[in-house]
Amino acid sequence: MTKTNLITGFLGSGKTTSILHLLAHKDPAEKWAVLVNEFGEVGIDGALLADSGALLKEIPGGCMCCVNGLPMQVGLNTLLRQGNPDRLLIEPTGLGHPKQILDLLTAPVYEPWIDLRATLCILDPRMLLDEKSATNDNFRDQLAAADIIVANKSDRASAESESALQRWWQQSGNNRQLIHTVQGKIDGQLLDLPRLNRAELPASTAHSHSHAEKRGLAALSLPAQQRWRRSLNSGQGHQACGWIFDADTIFDTIGLLEWARLAPVGRVKGVMRITEGLVRINRQGDDLHIETQNVAPPDSRIELISSTDIDWNMLQSALLKLRLADNA
């Protein structure tokens, strides 16, 4: 049986960063796998996890939380039967509802395969101060389904957000654990804690996605000879726009970072090729985190998510102008 953990959390809470930390500090003798789902189509998390050493399956476009769950079952079966990992981490989209996933993982058909351990919810406590996030059904259900609440980004906490967290914990903590951390630095021993919280969760009524007619377990890719393309996705009160560029396209570093910082959206995530190598961009609200490496990524991918209507064509025009002339 494969020890399995569901790692949830709202947009920008730090799920992927937490998983990268766990993978970097796991027992090197163990084989781990990650089933990752994103709201958009371009596969940013897959790109971030590509060099982690874990077996990886991607489910793009928010499909994991849909009622039928067929893409998830295909990815799950592939990892369990072909990969035979010692541990499986499942990362749903930040807009995902946990009920359908937990129902599937505890279904009789998976009893011989899955040893479901603690579910972790990564939480940026400042979201408790944002009424739109705090009243979101998926946000609330992610917290309700968790055995362990990981209050991430403690270095960004304020007195107000800490008070909001303590109030929430007094009302909803029950027999669960609450831990504080920064940059997703989670003790791997938490993963082996048992699943304690079995509260019945309501079925979400907000499972509305627009999907392409054909869906596979792969992120967006480029046809031969095509230099770039974009993809749109919407549902649950949010919309996403993502772009992918070929390996020969290089971006102006300063201009790209300013574009990401100033884009009128709530969420920006990307792995982009620049003159210096690559830059990882991660922005939630006004928090912008960047990391550069002196290696070239196989392509460039960036995605923006917004809860309001956005002129994607305007943002796209500005992004295209940031390509260096010899590579545009």
UniProtKB/TrEMBL annotation:
Pfam family, one: cobW
GO CC entries: cytoplasm
InterPro entries per the UniProt record, alphabetical: CobW-like_C, CobW/HypB/UreG_nucleotide-bd, P-loop_NTPase, Zinc-reg_GTPase_activator
Residue ranges of every copy of the CobW C-terminal domain listed in the record: 240-323
Described function: Zinc chaperone that directly transfers zinc cofactor to target proteins, thereby activating them. Zinc is transferred from the CXCC motif in the GTPase domain to the zinc binding site in target proteins in a process requiring GTP hydrolysis.
Record protein name field: CobW C-terminal domain-containing protein
